[in-house]
Structure formats: structure tokens, C-alpha cells
Design brief:
This protein is of the alpha/beta class. It has 15 helices and 12 strands. The chain has helices at residues 15-23, 50-58, 87-95, 121-153, 158-172, 181-184, 209-212, 215-224, 235-241, 246-255, 262-273, 298-305, 307-311, 321-327, 330-335; strands at residues 4-8, 40-45, 63-64, 67-72, 99-106, 201-207, 229-233, 276-281, 287-293, 313-320, 340-342, 352-358. The protein has a 6-stranded mixed beta sheet with strand order 2-4-1-5-6-7, with helices on both faces.
């Protein structure tokens, strides 16, 4: 399953620094607007400590994690929806990704200019979201007149008209469709519009030591993004962490009061925001994590390995990861009766280790 997360934000908020830290790709990070014009992309493994344990258990020759593709999109500015900066191009790049990672500047320093002259995270969020809403409103308003005309001849289209009018009202208020629970429950009905504001959003507050050490300030910023996922990190520190060996990395994390890199949190949050999960397979050749949507059935999961596996699905031999580790081997788990045989209707669980039986 191909996943892509677009990193967006105003210029000079640390997007490219975060992207470099995520991917070690060395994208240009500069202290002036539009340092990024063409979007940089990088494939990032999803942290999963279970893979190392399973690789040892199976004696696998190869370990393959699930991955997500991050896209570093150039900084938006006020007026982007009307073509300011390189607005139309940037908005098009956002349209191509599955979810948005919105980097918000929450650090103070005179050495990095702010495009709005002063640091104000909540204002910056509103600027970006307003531009996305205006772009989406234009999309909806282009569609509505024709649909309204068609609905006069075909009454069955009236609910569709009402839905688009409801969406237009939300967008007209500069709001994200993704924050409207009622609309998102009907997102299949307007998926063809490819709305920017309907994409899942992870908010990454690029913070300094003062914000990271202030729970009250973090709660204030979290409340500004309501129920969306909010992550707080120092992108520069995260970039430095990627240059260290594992022992020094642990020491540096401890010095800033973190148990794991903030980047790991961002990657997992992006995965979860898209409503995804992994299941695991293992053997002598390879231990691997496979990406599926939450709620996928066993045949659908098998189809991620190969379409023939889904078409010829017979059954899935399934065990919970923790039980398999407790058993010490697949054969021992089988002898204990801990491996279950599941059929076509089985809904995959996040901790499943699976071996599929199929006939093609």
C-alpha cells in the first residue's frame, strides 16, 4: 500500500530541516522563503521494534519494515489560493498526498526571519488552513451550479446538492472539513472532490526548549488543533540525533527529557492518522511488516503480498506477536495450540503474525 505525507507550513518554520531529519536526504534548508520549490521526497521506515525480535526468532536473512513516503512541499504564504508565492503549484502538490504534516513554528530566534514578522503559532495555523479552505471552496463552487441545475430534473441529486452546500458553509468559515465529524462520516460521498481540507492532519510544533518544558503552553497549542494529533519537537535537535551513533543518541535524548526521537512519534502519528495498521510475516528468507487499512480482512491482507494470495485465499494461520515471542518459535507455538486458523471473514488485528494458505 503506497502512503504519502505532505510536509506543509509557512516559509522558515523548519519543514526542510524536519524532512532532512526524517529522511537523511540532505534537502536544501535555508533561511529565506521558497528554499523548496520542487517537492523533495523520501521513503521512511516505520519504527517497529517487533521486527528485530521476529528476525531473531525466525533466523531471517532479511528484515523489511513498513514505510511511508514524505514529501517536502514548499512554504505556503497568505494568498496562496489566489496564486501568491507559488500557490497554485504548492496546492497541487498537497492534493497528491494522502495526509498532511503541518509544521508550525513555536520557537523564538532572531537568526531565522518569520514571513509574518512575529512568531504566533495559532495565527500561522489559521493562515494555512484558510488558504486550503479557500482552494476547496473554489472546487465546490465550481461543481455546485451544474449539480443544482441537474437536480431540478433529477430529485435524487438533491441530497448531493445539500451535502455540497453544507461543505461550502464549513469552508466559507475557513474551517477544515476533517474537523467536522458529521461530514467526515460521509466522506465517501464527496471523495471525488479530492478536498485538501478533508485530508488527515498531524500538527508538528517545531519548538524551542522553553515550549518543550512548558506543559501549559503545549496544552494551549494542542487545544488550537482540537482533536487532531499534535507532536512537539525541536527539528534541529532531531536532525542532530540522526548523525549520532545509537549510544550517543540515547544520551542526548535523555539530556532533553525524551525517551525516543520525536521523529518516531511523527512517523507513527502519520500512519495512525491514515487509519492504517501493520501485520507481520516471518520466515528464514524474510521478516516483514505489511501495511493494511484498519479493519481489513484476512484475504485483503493477503492481497498486499500478492493479488494471487487474495484470489486463492484458503485460510490464515494467526498468532498474537506476544504469544509467539513467549513460545520462542513458530513450531513451539503450534504445538501449544496457540496458532489459530482464521477464514475469509477474519478482521486483522495490529499485533497479528500471519502465515497464509492459498491455492493459485
Amino acid at each position: 500500500m503506497s502512503l504519502s505525507i505532505g510536509i506543509v507550513g509557512l516559509p522558515n518554520v523548519g519543514k526542510s530541516t524536519l524532512f532532512n531529519a526524517l529522511t537523511n536526504a540532505g534537502a536544501l534548508a535555508a533561511n529565506y522563503p521558497f528554499a523548496t520549490i520542487e517537492p523533495n521526497t523520501g521513503i521512511v521506515p516505520i519504527p517497529d521494534p517487533r521486527l528485530a525480535a521476529l528476525t531473531t526468532l525466525f533466523g531471517s536473512a532479511k528484515t523489511t519494515p513498513a514505510t511511508v513516503r514524505f514529501v517536502d512541499i514548499a512554504g505556503l504564504v497568505k494568498g496562496a489560493s489566489a496564486g501568491e508565492g507559488l500557490g497554485n503549484q504548492f496546492l497541487g502538490n498537497i492534493r497528491d498526498v494522502n495526509a498532511i504534516c503541518h509544521v508550525v513554528r513555536a520557537f523564538e530566534t532572531e537568526s531565522v526571519i518569520h514571513v509574518e514578522d512575529a512568531v504566533d503559532p495559532i495565527r500561522d495555523i489559521e493562515i494555512i488552513e484558510t488558504e486550503l479552505a479557500i482552494a476547496d471552496l473554489e472546487t465546490v463552487e465550481k461543481r455546485l451550479p451544474k449539480l443544482e441545475k441537474e437536480a431540478t430534473a433529477d430529485p435524487e441529486l438533491k441530497p448531493r446538492v445539500a451535502l455540497l452546500q453544507e461543505i461550502a458553509e464549513v469552508l466559507g468559515a475557513g474551517k477544515m472539513v476533517s474537523r467536522d465529524k458529521g461530514l467526515m462520516e460521509r466522506r465517501d460521498q464527496f471523495a471525488d472532490l479530492h478536498l485538501l481540507t478533508a485530508k488527515p492532519v498531524i500538527y508538528v510544533f517545531n519548538s524551542d526548549e522553553w515550549v518543550l518544558a512548558d506543559p501549559g503552553r503545549r496544552r494551549e497549542l494542542e487545544s488550537a488543533v482540537e482533536s487532531s494529533v499534535a507532536v512537539f519537537l525541536d527539528a534541529q535537535i532531531e536532525a542532530e540525533l540522526t548523525e549520532l551513533d545509537p549510544e550517543d543518541r540515547i544520551e542526548m535524548l535523555a539530556s532533553v527529557g525524551q525517551s525516543e526521537p520525536g521523529l518516531d512519534v511523527v512517523i507513527r502519528a502519520a500512519y495512525q492518522a491514515l487509519g492504517l495498521q501493520s501485520y507481520l510475516t516471518g520466515g528464514e528468507k524474510e521478516t516483514r511488516a505489511w501495511t493494511i487499512r484498519a479493519g481489513a480482512t484476512a484475504p485483503e491482507a493477503a492481497g498486499e503480498i500478492h493479488t494471487d494470495f487474495e484470489r486463492g485465499f484458503i485460510a490464515a494461520e494467526v498468532i498474537d506477536y506476544d504469544r509467539l515471542i513467549e513460545a520462542g518459535s513458530w513450531n513451539e507455538a503450534k504445538s501449544k495450540g496457540w496458532i489459530r486458523t482464521e477464514g475469509r471473514s477474519y478482521v486483522m488485528q495490529p499485533n497479528d503474525v500471519v502465515e497464509f494458505r492459498f491455492n493459485v
